[in-house]
Amino acid sequence: MSTPRIKINIKKIAHNAKTLNRLYGSKGIEVIGVTKAVCGNPDVAAALVNNGISILADSRIINIRRMRKAGVQAEFLLLRTPLLSQAEDVVKYADISLNSEVSVIKELSKFAKMNYTKHKIILMVELGDLREGIMPLDLDDTVKQVLALDGIELAGIGTNLACFGGIQPDNDKMVSLSSLAKNIEEKYNLNIKFISGGNSANYNWFMSTNDVGRINNLRLGESIYLGCETLYRKPIPGLYIDAFTLVAEVIESKIKPSHPFGKIAQDAFGNVPEFQDRGKIKRVILGIGLQDVQVSGLTPKADIEILGSSSDHIVIDARKIELKTGDEVEFNLNYGALLSAMTSPYVFKKVEENFWMPKNIAKALNKNTAIIKNYFQPSLLKKTTLD
User: Fold this and answer.
1) Using CA atoms, how far apart are residues 215 and 222, in angstroms rounded to an integer?
2) What is the distance between the alpha carbons of residues 35 and 116, in angstroms, rounded to a whole number?
3) Angle 48-49-53 (CA atoms, 0-180°, nearest 5)?
4) Catalytic center residues
5) Is the sign of the CA dihedral 386, 359, 93, 119 positive or negative?
6) Contact 48, 76 (CB under 8 A)
7) What angle do CA 245, 59, 344 make, to 5 degrees?
8) Which residues of the chain have pLDDT under 50?
9) Whole-prediction pTM value?
10) Phi, psi for residue 350 in degrees, rounded to 5
11) Domains of the chain, CATH where assigned
């Protein structure tokens, strides 16, 4: 089987999505499934939809197009505030978008009118993380301008925390967002659908509060895929933390010194490496490197140690494990490693436990089961769910 590859366990992702959807739903919070880390993979997207998540969010229009083309039945939200140059495609492919610039919203309005459609927007409010967002004092004026635009529906307000500045989405932040939503609704006689309090980092706040206020929406990616909250990366009880596995192949295995010999200068990336002299070791090279994955985000499943990496190689100390050329080594991934491996065209994606097919194929199956079964693997004919 081709390497390097990333194994994607759809049943585990489905379980995590269903569990989190139920958990947040117990306090009236809807989950939007973020597909950014998996680059809009249709099998993963369908697993989310089939387990109760009706809105999918991605930061790239190309990923939204990919899911639509595959027949994934969902509403699509553009997660990153739109590029001005992409306004036409945003209106064409995304049902909703997060926004913080009036100039961009005006451009969305222009293309929405041209296409005789309504584009929904969620205004992002800055609550301290200092990434995207309108300053709270400027929100009223922004709302006023947005409401005057044709082709635009103000569907909600939201905020983003813990992504850039590491600022926690605590009760004070959520109360502030709830208050802003209430003020806007009362002043402009609106009924705001989405009050989006953040992302996977909101787990600790959610579990500690008895009153979520007006917060009725969260955008979840990492907690679905890796089963953890994102303030301290602690596992969430009842979730799988190993839905993704990276597999790399041994391309050299020799006994070599643990310390390079000669004068040390900069490596390929401009760093001056330091090494501990442990004598001779089982020095093994894997056919994967920094061009494929964020190596610092990998954790070996076996008792081996990553010594370092270059663009195309990872060097490990195999310790007591016997590895020969052609053997495979598996790793768990953190979010950064998952994102980079899924994005890399050099890492093969192997979907396991795949029970989803596009809706049009499922309809065809009902009409002519024999033909479809000859064309598709039997495992593809079942719905992706896990109770």
Assistant:
1) 20
2) 28
3) 80
4) 36
5) negative
6) no
7) 40
8) 356, 361-362, 364-387
9) 0.91
10) -115, 105
11) 9-226 (3.20.20.10), 244-346 (2.40.37.10), 357-381 (no CATH)
